[in-house]
């Protein structure tokens, strides 16, 4: 089929018009009806502004009855997984958003086992999906796989900490990592640039694979291309979160009020909040696709390979066990034969002495 | 000395306190200067002068503290260093022919930097202060306080004070060492309202209302370090340098050092230790104490 102007094919009266140009609209309607699902995992030490940021991003309060534990309580605490789901609707489009929180991460004095719980959780979701996918009734598979992980880096440090590096390396083949620096209002613009560069250098140095925004397609308009370029250049995003309304320059804005000024959440000159939000929204689809096509497929092939190898190993073992058992049987038979021979000898030599036979214990 | 994870602004603050470059800033860690694998103790001595008064200031930094994945017992090298200084002083004191002025390398004050999470202390903070408040004067400081609004600051301070109290941690000025009612009243106010000081440090100057002030410049305003409406740096400075400097030394000498001395004498059967007797608890004998570098 030759490429001609699409306008020619939208008119049903036009000869040669079949009508499948309407497919995208049909897909759109079905998707909207079905709704979208997205799972976002949030990881970082306590007090880095994670909850505030999530609440700001989705303009909701995901943690209404929250109690912040004291330091003494945190000493014995292990990492927990807390998933909360909200259904958000905007202009008829429904989003079922699950935020997976990981309280306790990075709090303990010894954080060696910090990530086990988190990695298990991610694997469990993959496992469940794999199981459902291989099942008989596949009509309503619920996708609880983690599509994206916001990893919070402290703005107070000089870059990545050993824990940051180890954790990201442990999950970069399982989930899309988006590094975020919250509480960015503690940094001046120069400090921010320096920290971003430092973190990017360290990520490259340690071979950590973070989520890469795909380049804009060549047929997209210039604005979109420019926006994508800007987004890519701003990673990791330095953000400030808040749901408080402050009066600034005559308007009410979301922000934080300090004695020396007001930090506006949605002001691109103050922080990258808008960029982060844009990225998340325009790339939600891509994040899901990469999870499905890359991370899940990796998991699946590893899992299936492991599955068959285990069976082969068991068969090999069975043969070995059989051989060993036969050898043991032979040994026992030999021993019994020896004893019998001994008894025979005793009886023959001690024929005159009956007490000897009786005194002889075998 | 100053303790706290890297990046909490310790070097900048010390420079601001003494208005001179007494602390080498790690300028965002060059490639070669990685986070050390264990806690290091780096002591650098300075001589500073003001109004004809000379002061020998030794700043002891502890890079690597709290930065590892496993931070168990990371306070031990610090406790050891402090005890080594006491040991050194003790050995001089019991010498037959001793110097008129014993060189004093004992740690008079420990600034502990708390991360401004706005939530509570971290388990590591509690453990460190529990162990070390018994051997040295600890002054807890909330670092990079420009990340908290006024309400958040007040709430956080209250929470930290409560946590320290509940866990039996006595920071300087300790209640039991108040000498008289005047001291008690003054110190009570500091203990219950001002501390821990929420500070911001800076070694850069900006023009504000016609004056040059130390501060931090942001797109939404300039944070003035010495403006009490912005942060409590001025309170910390006045407290440590202008009013309580001598007291810090006296409490170190009369209380902490005496406690150490008594324990050592007890361990040694009531006899003063000789250079050969190691400290039973820490296994210290004097061979490996490195004096601070002087600049």
From TrEMBL, chain A:
<keyword id="KW-0131">Cell cycle</keyword>
<keyword id="KW-0963">Cytoplasm</keyword>
<dbReference type="GO" id="GO:0030496">
    <property type="term" value="C:midbody"/>
</dbReference>
<dbReference type="GO" id="GO:0045171">
    <property type="term" value="C:intercellular bridge"/>
</dbReference>
<keyword id="KW-0498">Mitosis</keyword>
<dbReference type="GO" id="GO:0031105">
    <property type="term" value="C:septin complex"/>
</dbReference>
<dbReference type="GO" id="GO:0002036">
    <property type="term" value="P:regulation of L-glutamate import across plasma membrane"/>
</dbReference>
<feature type="coiled-coil region">
    <location>
        <begin position="322"/>
        <end position="349"/>
    </location>
</feature>
<dbReference type="InterPro" id="IPR027417">
    <property type="entry name" value="P-loop_NTPase"/>
</dbReference>
<keyword id="KW-0966">Cell projection</keyword>
<keyword id="KW-0132">Cell division</keyword>
<dbReference type="GO" id="GO:0051301">
    <property type="term" value="P:cell division"/>
</dbReference>
<keyword id="KW-0547">Nucleotide-binding</keyword>
<dbReference type="GO" id="GO:0005819">
    <property type="term" value="C:spindle"/>
</dbReference>
<dbReference type="GO" id="GO:0032154">
    <property type="term" value="C:cleavage furrow"/>
</dbReference>
<dbReference type="Pfam" id="PF00735">
    <property type="entry name" value="Septin"/>
</dbReference>
<dbReference type="GO" id="GO:0015629">
    <property type="term" value="C:actin cytoskeleton"/>
</dbReference>
<feature type="domain" description="Septin-type G">
    <location>
        <begin position="34"/>
        <end position="306"/>
    </location>
</feature>
<dbReference type="GO" id="GO:0005930">
    <property type="term" value="C:axoneme"/>
</dbReference>
<dbReference type="InterPro" id="IPR016491">
    <property type="entry name" value="Septin"/>
</dbReference>
<dbReference type="GO" id="GO:0005525">
    <property type="term" value="F:GTP binding"/>
</dbReference>
<protein>
    <recommendedName>
        <fullName>Septin</fullName>
    </recommendedName>
</protein>
UniProtKB/TrEMBL annotation, chain B:
<dbReference type="InterPro" id="IPR027417">
    <property type="entry name" value="P-loop_NTPase"/>
</dbReference>
<dbReference type="GO" id="GO:0005737">
    <property type="term" value="C:cytoplasm"/>
</dbReference>
<dbReference type="InterPro" id="IPR030379">
    <property type="entry name" value="G_SEPTIN_dom"/>
</dbReference>
<protein>
    <recommendedName>
        <fullName>Neuronal-specific septin-3</fullName>
    </recommendedName>
</protein>
<dbReference type="InterPro" id="IPR016491">
    <property type="entry name" value="Septin"/>
</dbReference>
<keyword id="KW-0342">GTP-binding</keyword>
<feature type="domain" description="Septin-type G">
    <location>
        <begin position="1"/>
        <end position="267"/>
    </location>
</feature>
<dbReference type="GO" id="GO:0005525">
    <property type="term" value="F:GTP binding"/>
</dbReference>
<keyword id="KW-0963">Cytoplasm</keyword>
<dbReference type="Pfam" id="PF00735">
    <property type="entry name" value="Septin"/>
</dbReference>
<keyword id="KW-0547">Nucleotide-binding</keyword>
<dbReference type="InterPro" id="IPR008114">
    <property type="entry name" value="Septin3"/>
</dbReference>
<feature type="region of interest" description="Disordered">
    <location>
        <begin position="264"/>
        <end position="295"/>
    </location>
</feature>
